[in-house]
Amino acid sequence: MQTTKTPPPHRLSDWKVILPYWRSEEKWRAFAMLGGIIGLSFFYVRAAVWFGKWNQSFFDAMFAFRAQDCLALLPPYLLMSALSTAIYVVQIYLTQVLSMRWRLWNTRVYLRQYLSHETYYRLEHGLEQADNPDQRIADDLSQMTIWTLRLGLDAIQAITTLISFSIVLWDVGGTLTFTWHGHTFHIPGYLFLGTVLATLLTSLVLERFGGPLVNANYRQQHYDADLRAGLMDVRRNSEQIAFYGGEDAENLRFSRYLAQIASNWRSVVAYTWRANVITSFFHQTASCLLWVMLIPKVLAHTLTIGLYSRINAAFMQARSSLQWFIDNYTDLATLRSILQRLSEFERVVAHPFEKSILRQTGASPDVRIENLVLRRPDGSVLTTLPDLTLHAGERWMICGASGVGKSTLLRALAGLWGYGSGTVTFDTQHAMFVPQRPYVPDGTSLRQVLSYPATPDQYDTEAYEAVLKQVALAAYLPKLEDEAEWSQIFSPGEEQRLAIARVLLARPQIVFLDEATSALDEAQETLLYTLLVTLLPHATLVSVAHHAALRRFHQAILTLTPEGATLTRGTEAASD
Ligand SMILES: Nc1ncnc2c1ncn2[C@@H]1O[C@H](COP(=O)(O)OP(=O)(O)OP(=O)(O)O)[C@@H](O)[C@H]1O
């Protein structure tokens, strides 16, 4: 499904999407890995200090022409380099493993939510608003774990570096003392405070001018997903489009998607440009800032070359770690928009499905319909049904003009339609619904296609062979074990025969058929209905159908109209 809409407002709760894994049954292993990765990154900060000291000793020795000392310093250097390399490799490996485990855990949870309570159906049929759930499950979850770990771990490293060098900056920077309007002020650690203040100021300016980048990124992912979904549509419906000669119409559709992408991309570029101008201005002016802050020391004649080089080094390190937050502003914006999309998906999934029509599982073999009113999602009435009881083994046909609500009645019986009121009661455990276009899973064996949704080992080979022969699909007998793109191979009529073969295998007590033989000629429809009534003589049958030839297989006709429904029984129905 594709929708065009603006992103929901940012909420702090969007960040909660990150938490469930860290509270799951895998949390201890996850925390252990995270702890290991963080520990290794602390080693990195320590190693940087060690290499710094080593440099000083080595170059002091070199410029003092102490060749022996230089040679003696090489083995520890090589040892430390080997250790650093090993730790670097292990750190990357652990991060990848953690990221994959997190992604798999999240994907399993999302899939469970998506594939339960008919969520996949609600999302696809416009009953809920969350576009392209496939992209959220397949891409966004993976991106979320990668970005969160990368940004989170880099942030920890930046904070560690910041703390280490801020202490130096605070200590060696000293206190700024000045007199203003007769008052003397003392600002301890003013170099550190100045650095932090300047960075915060830059962040505020960035949020003001680059903030809309989050929304623009959100929309960009949304439009990209629409383009992908459109291309999938073309793949799925290639034959229909080719028959209609629909290339121009498709091109027009895609040029609309591209126009949306282009227009939003211009916003992304504009906001990124603004963010980059501010970031780069901060980069360029940082050294000036230090010089300005050092003026009091110059005027007081307390700035030596040694002190300057120390302050400069600490300032650079503190600034670069603070700057990490500024430089990664756009990445944080991307992560925020991913979290927003996932959080929106979670809200929709958690939102209770409108179910004003009560569907009860009854022990009685009858199908009972009480006070049933079917409505459209906008609340308007489709049709109203009188109280009805369909006794076990009875066969009813549902007729009515197109759009009156025949399929909607079956959806309500299947628990897929909640708009309206009333109650339906039947033995849901032993019922089977056959839609007009049966589902044919691709990439599986024909045996699996036939047994769906049960597993292929549910029936023996003789049973599969028998039903294939019965529904006149004997030509496929040699292909029972073949794995193929079956939906591309079967004709619509063959798909419908296959769906009846499924019913004959499963032998349900109640069968609901929604125009399940509409693609077949009269002779084949008659063959399939004869099979159903002779091989499942005690099954209750409810058929939505248009063809008059099928009336003789049913004992009653339920005719739906917008004003209500009427039931005609017995010979009257058959001869009508
Ligand atoms: N997801 C939906 N959102 C809004 N309206 C819907 C939705 N699904 C169905 N409808 C509307 O409900 C009405 C009844 O549809 P339904 O499929 O039940 O008709 P039908 O009687 O089976 O028609 P046909 O004989 O043509 O198959 C139609 O007007 C249809 O547009």
From TrEMBL:
Matching Pfam families: ABC_membrane_2 (PF06472), ABC_tran (PF00005)
GO MF terms, alphabetically ordered: ABC-type transporter activity; ATP binding; ATP hydrolysis activity
Cellular-component GO terms for this entry: plasma membrane
Superkingdom to which the source organism belongs: Bacteria
Transmembrane residue ranges: 30-51, 71-94, 151-170, 190-209
Membrane topology per record: Multi-pass membrane protein
Major location category of this protein: membrane
Subcellular location: Cell membrane
Residue ranges annotated for the ABC transmembrane type-1 domain, each copy included: 36-334
Keyword Glycoprotein: no
Keyword Ribonucleoprotein: no
Keywords annotated in UniProt: ATP-binding, Membrane, Nucleotide-binding, Transmembrane, Transmembrane helix, Transport
Protein name: ABC transporter
Organism ancestry: Bacteria, Pseudomonadati, Pseudomonadota, Alphaproteobacteria, Acetobacterales
